[in-house]
Amino acid sequence: MRAAYDVVIVGGAVIGSAVAHFLTANPDFNGSVLVVERDPTYARASTSLSSSSIRTQFSNPINVRISQFGSAFIRDFANAMQVPGEAPPDLNFHQGGYLFLANTAEQEQTLRENHEVQRACGADVVLWGPEELARAFPHLRVEDIRLASYGQSGEGWFSNTGLMNGFKAKARAQGAEYVKDEVVAIGRDGARVTSVTLKSGAVVQAGTIVNASGPRAALTARMAGLDVPVEPRKRTLFVFDCARSPEGSATVNKGRLPLMIDPTGVFCRPEGRFFLSGAAPVEDPAVDWDDFEPRYEEFESLVWPALAARSGAFEAIKVVNQWAGHYDFNTLDHNLIVGRHPEVENFIYANGFSGHGLQQGPAAGRGVSELIIHGGYRTLDLSEVGYERIVEGRPFLEKAVI
């Protein structure tokens, strides 16, 4: 490890490693990159504990385009992340699509408005009434459904750790350095951050610092005398077996079922021979950064009742596994924060993804690299999700948050 780096990235999971990759892959960048990761096993990283899905069904054009880039990048990941002498990374991208269901007039109107935005961006999304929905997915009870929104391509789920490890391996092959350590202090001289102090005692000079520390983003920012409205929120995921699995019963997409979001907010998707499900809790407080105890009761109180009401196939199911992970939850507007601090411009945020970090990681990583290399965005303009809105208390509105 050197005494100074052009860029120091705090956090080496999917966001930090995406930034490291795009920096070192760009021929216009000839600087040095250090990624500081406190736990390289990533056992409790939001990346590792995610349901690892991607969708284009958002209400805001920038979020749609972020995911469109992410989807294309994931499809070509094996080629883009190939490291000489190693097997190409396989993300096993399962393009099952997303299925949003609406059973109130308000939900229906939201789906219709979102659909206009999605189609304007070129997303492959269709709207169905209850009859079309029933034909496509015969196992569903649709009597209460007013409208469904289905992503026919470009949406699905993939390997979360595969994405992270692919970025990391490629970044290291391109010259980025990774160190197992923890940032415990950040030096600042007026309007610039200057260094990071590590738990090991090392002090590393930094030309630019990137905050990619997930749910711990606020802790990192405070070391520099700054802030960001991000806190850890717990999400419990359940894997269940099904006595009469409906997988294979669809009349679209070769019989494969999508990731379904019920009007209650409960989601469910195939996971091999099982199913993965979860829901936002009724009470959703911030939790301790080390609190990963699953909320076991949510399956009986939230998940199973909604699924059993939606499909007879889900009346007889049994939990076979569960775990809890953390959203790096942006309390202002539940959306990503990517960009420089307006007063400390060599401190860059890549935080607050609120459960969308994996799907938005490729675009965020590319965007941060462009800010560092070129001083501005060259591809997708992420200015709308910059830190300025945090200072101004101006939420970036997105209706399709789950």
UniProtKB/TrEMBL annotation:
InterPro entries in alphabetical order: FAD-dep_OxRdtase, FAD/NAD-bd_sf
Source superkingdom: Bacteria
Gene3D superfamilies: D-Amino Acid Oxidase, subunit A, domain 2 (3.30.9.10), FAD/NAD(P)-binding domain (3.50.50.60)
GO cellular component: cytoplasm
Biological process annotations from GO: mitochondrial respiratory chain complex I assembly
Domain FAD dependent oxidoreductase: 6-371
MF annotations from Gene Ontology: oxidoreductase activity
Keywords: Oxidoreductase
Membrane-spanning ranges: none
Protein name: FAD-binding oxidoreductase
Naturally occurring in which organism (per UniProt): Aliigemmobacter aestuarii
